[in-house]
Amino acid sequence: MTTGSKTTTVFLTTLCALLLTIVGLVQRWPGWAWAALAVLLVAVPTVTFKIAESRRGSFSVDFEEQRTAVPIERREHRLSSVALPSQWADYDFLFSATVRWYPLDPNGHGPVVNPAGLAVEAVLERARALTELRDPDRVSLVEHELGGALSRLCPDRTELLQAMAENVTLTLHAHDRERLDKLAEVRKDKAVWEHQRKYEQSKREYLGEDVLKDTGSAVVWWLAKNEDRVEKTVADLGLLAQLASAANDADVPDRLRAFVPQLVDGRTDAEDVDGPSTVVEREPTATEHFEAFLTSMGFPDGDVRRGMLAKQVADVIRTQGRNETAEEMLRRFEPPARYRSDDEDPSVGGDDAGFESPPGR
Questions:
Q1: What is the pLDDT of residues 224-258, one digit of tens each?
Q2: Of 116, 137, 172, which one is at a domain's C-terminal end?
Q3: What's the pLDDT score for residue 205?
Q4: Which of 46, 67, 88 is a domain's end point?
Q5: Closest to 353 measured CA to CA, from 314, 290, 304
Q6: From the centroid of its chain, how far is CA 158?
Q7: How far is residue 360 from each of residues 140, 208, 313, 315, 320, measured CA to CA in Å?
Q8: Which of 241, 282, 323, 346 could form a disulfide with 256 if both were Cys (CB 3.0 to 4.6 A apart)?
Q9: Transmembrane segments in this chain: where (predicted)?
Q10: Confidence (pLDDT) at 269
């Protein structure tokens, strides 16, 4: 029983005694009643004190002991912007969280330690094991992973306490975030450029190694595109022969010269002027063959399709190492400005000239 309880008990006993005394005087109690009242007033406080002592226990709590009692330990610690490594060198995560712990020996019989330090060490070790395997450009995803991985109480390496983390946040330095954004943009641009380069390379291989490999391949390709125009295909044998010869930087084969009007007409005019003995036959160049092909196809001078088609054929010729012929062809026809750069996609011009990309390429 505390001091306050004892004071209250004595006060109530005294008050009851006064009231009973007044009642006894008014009622003129006999002498034995006054003796019984005196015994009752002494016995009630004594019995009350005994009962309170038995309930409290045999050990008394001294006031000085209460003053010097150890205060309750605060079992949490806030971390802010702790650098943790990522999978990329020099790109650190910034880790912030509230660390909480629970001692495995609450009675304090173990060694004297700093529980906050042990808890922080345990949480950082668990966080680092995860972040050093993650890419820094996935910082939001890693933050949620950490929130789940650190949400459970787990023993530290000393097994003196269990630790966990709450309110986990993960960020990057501002300059690191900018660098990662630039790297992502460069990777995307490179992927687009690689796709365009492979497309152009595939198209050149298709034209040079398949369509324009020789006159026969060119005829088959032309028939496939004009199935219902067999007679026109036969009439265009000379044009196809010139185109295949220009693509391979070679002369028109002798067996196909009769199908090339320019060669036949050129020889006849020379014979009429100078006579058979003075004829000096000059073999037309690949560029002249190609020009004749364009003219017969209905692409007059000034038509932008002449330049577009010339660039595609020049690209095919370059793949076979005949750069001089390719340059001569480009100088002669000079494609429009927007097709002069190798970085532009010539697919539009190729389609206008009648070429199609091979299936599956």
A1: 877 777 777 777 777 778 778 888 777 777 777 77
A2: 172
A3: 85
A4: 67
A5: 304
A6: 38
A7: 39, 17, 21, 21, 24
A8: 241
A9: 7-26, 32-52
A10: 46
